[in-house]
Amino acid sequence: MSYLNQRLTSVDLLHQAIKSASEGWYIGDSEIAGQGVFAGKDYQPGDVIGIAMTCGSKDEYGAQCWNLTTLARYCNHQQKNNVEIKKKDNQFDLIATKPISTDDELVADYRQVTRAVGPYSRMQWEGKDVPTNTLDEYTEK
């Protein structure tokens, strides 16, 4: 990667971090896997953290497509989750289920997400399908 591209990437990441922190969360290195989403402020049970998924179009087979936001894309899986998704109109919000302190990682139970979007649904990130047909890879051993 050229020096200019490295600089541009760093600037993009900085802008994302500033934007996300102003929304009450930010992306950082996770001890669970890769990167994760962290609380930029304290949350109480029931607090809306942000929009996790928005409703897209139906595919050629009639399956409803759900578009993940950056917040949902970087939210890691744990069975002992501290957030869940809740449908509101044509979107799913990420909601705190426990008290969450600033800098705590936000973690969801992917099985709950798969059940919430329902059968005959597809989740997508940047136009590409996110696997939802098996829970084996998300189950803690």
Instruction: List low-confidence stretches.
Output: 1-9, 133-141
Number of domains: 1
Strand ordering within the main sheet: 6-7-3-4-9-10
Instruction: Report how far apart the termini are.
Output: 38 Å
Would you give the CATH topology?
A: Beta-clip-like
Give the fraction of residues assigned to helices.
10-25%
| Relevant CATH superfamily | SET domain
Report the mean per-residue pLDDT as an integer. 78
SSE order: HEEEEHEEEEHEE
Strand content: 35-45%
Give the overall shape, derived from the CA principal axes: globular
Return the structural class. alpha+beta
Distinct helical segment count: 3
Indicate the CATH class.
Mainly Beta
Give me the Rg, rounded: 16 Å
Count of DSSP E strands? 10
Main beta sheet strand tally, sense and closure: 6 strands, mixed
Shape-level CATH architecture: Beta Complex
Account of the 3D structure:
There is one protein chain. With 141 residues, the protein is an alpha+beta fold. The chain has one domain: SET domain (Beta-clip-like, Beta Complex), CATH 2.170.270. It is 23% helix and 37% strand. It has three helices and ten strands. The protein has helices at 3-22, 70-73, 110-117; strands at residues 25-29, 35-39, 48-58, 64-68, 76-77, 83-88, 91-96, 105-108, 121-125, 128-130. The strands form two sheets. It has a six-stranded mixed beta sheet. Strands 1-2-8-5 form a four-stranded mixed beta sheet. A hairpin with a 2-residue loop joins β9 and β10. The model is unreliable at 1-9 and 133-141 (pLDDT under 50).
